[in-house]
Amino acid sequence: MTEGNAGFSSGLRRPSEEGAPPEQWDAEHYAANMRFVADMAMQPLIDLLAPKQGERILDLGCGDGPLMGPIAAHGCSVVGVDYSEDMILKAQEKGLDAHVADGQSLSFDNEFDAVFTNAALHWMKRDPDGVITGVKRALKQGGRFVGEFGGHGNVAAIKTALLAVCNARGIDGFSRIPWYFPTVDEYRAKLEAQGFEVEYIELIPRPTPLPTGMAEWFAGFGNTFFEGMDEETKSAAVAEGLALLKPSLCDSKGNWTADYVRLRFSAKLKT
Fold first, then answer.
1. Which residues, at least 6 apart from 107, have a Cβ–Cβ distance to it below 8 Å?
2. Which of 66, 213, 228, 244 could be stapled to 3 by a disulfide with Cβ–Cβ 3.0 to 4.6 Å?
3. Domain around 111
4. How many domains does the chain have?
5. 196 by DSSP, 3-state: which?
6. Nearest-angstrom CA–CA distance, 267 and 196
7. Within a domain: residue 200?
8. What is the pTM of this model?
9. Which parts of the sequence belong to the Methyltransferase type domain (predicted)?
């Protein structure tokens, strides 16, 4: 697969508040170009969740609901929440019980046997402790919190390239980083501080092929770094970012691989 920067467009809008989740994902763009995020983690995460007949489970950051059906197939009742109205509309069109909500200020109270999350918590940069507080409140006594998201070292090369193209143009790239990628020790401490017993937590290196290339990854996940640039400046910045990354993340046939590292965990609320 060869790639240029023609047709670069945003898969999301920048948060209106620093560290808030993206206001709107373009659900069709996500489905066409970034579905691999849900697909790669699906079975291992559901195995870790071990859903049981009759349980009520919350899918936190459900997107358009790709994992809600497979969880419900175990005989569970699944509720999904996501910050993106477009994603939730797509989930509802599939007949899923999905609702718009900010994962950093959940309002559920003692309703769920488990909270499940995939590839969402790293977008909740503003208040990761608030996320855990809301999850704790949403769970029944002894409930479990199971998930996976970007961990320390995730997209390190990509982030470095994006910072470089911003800084070269007099933009503070660091202030535009939209993600929270904690270490194992950091996230374990946050969970334990709020009364969770961490049963499993691990960083998992996962080099991830990008079916539609790095320019589409920029458009879908890295657009905050290019916000406010005119089209000519953006086009040049994207081209420069691709050139910086090509020696390490693109093979001789033009196939791109993202340097993903995931943090996977399972924790139980102490009784």
1. 101, 134
2. 213
3. 27-269
4. 1
5. strand
6. 6
7. yes
8. 0.86
9. 58-146
